[in-house]
Amino acid sequence: MSKPVHMNGYRCFACAAEQPADYAGFECPCCGGNLEITYDYAAATEELAADFSKSPRDLFRYQALLPVNRLPSPFPLRIGGTPLYQAPLLGQQASLTRLYLKDDSRNPSASLKDRASAITLCRAMDTGASVVSVASTGNAGSSLACLSAALGMSAVVFVPESAPAAKLTQLLSYGARVLAVRGSYDEAFDLCLVASKKFGWFNRSNGFNPFTREGKKTCAFEIWEDLGGKVPDRVVVPTGDGNILSGIWKGWRDLKAVGLIDRLPKIDCAQSASSAAICQTVQRLRDSQEPVNDWSNISIDQVQANTVADSISVDQPRDGLAAVRAIIESGGEAVTVPDSEILAALGEMARYSGVFPEPAAATPWAAVKQMADDRLIDRDELVVCLVTGSGLKDTARARQAAGEPMIIEPSLDAVTEY
Questions:
Q1: Using one digit for the tens of pLDDT, what is the confidence trace for 275-312?
Q2: How many separate domains does the chain show?
Q3: Residue 289 is part of which domain span?
Q4: Which of 396, 360, 359, 335 is nearest to 94 (CA)?
Q5: pTM of the predicted structure, to 2 decimals
């Protein structure tokens, strides 16, 4: 298998050991840490400018900074190219003048996870794999099942038995083999690792497969393009295992590496107070007031997660170290919000912006309101909230936030003026 044109190899987040591009593993052979893909940025720069003019507008327009060789031509579904909305009415609720929503619920399976699935499936085809597996709270599995169906590949999805019914319905409808584990997401993740190794499946799981981060980083590229080449002051990311957050940070760092931007945004972590391992770790490191000189010695907190935001309900963040590094290196905030505020934020987003998020995707707005109350955000900052999944993914929680309809008799007399 030849390497993608501009891919140099891998670097470990923990010990910084480097591996060549033909390294076949997904974890650092020196310390077991997560790997980051590296590029020849000088070589990619000239080609990247041409890629931006490609049509249709999807994530493959950034192929010069993607670690894939063989692309189905055309890719059967459009991934990426999702809208960036300015949300002035929503922003007014926190006295913010430049609030934007990056609506990745517009992807084919209705979540940002399609970006990761597109790149990992291309990589799987590069390696000759025919079966792809994943551990998921629901969205990554739905995404893998959706894109696998379109490409004619087989998908095996491990989910906790408690996954929302709508997400399970998606998975089964796409024809994936769905294994609902009597346990947590973390137990599903561990089982997926063992089974994939035994049966030779290509494991797409977040925080294990470094190619997922490369798909998710394209969200940052699109934000930059849609802002006319401007860098936002901060991007607020709903966070569970940490992989979306580390991917967004990678995207901005890539743009800087090729000379398209000269500064980086703050990356803010938004977590449920009931699933806050990454925020707790950041707070612990900052409270110590000691600079981090050796990331290999940093441990990531573990919790017993139990939140209405199922997509970010994680005990042990599998990409936690990369996420913690991203928050600290970017100067971002680590914000936890109670589940009650997440549900309130869901309703506010729908009511004041017309964008309907699932609970996890409403968490950034809940975090923004808290940061505004704590005066951590200036009213004129350019703030982007990531909307990572549709409210149709979990209608039970959305209904809980929305309330009940007014039941009336079928008579005009029962209808009052609005």
A1: 999 999 999 999 998 888 889 999 999 999 999 999 99
A2: 1
A3: 84-110+212-401
A4: 335
A5: 0.95
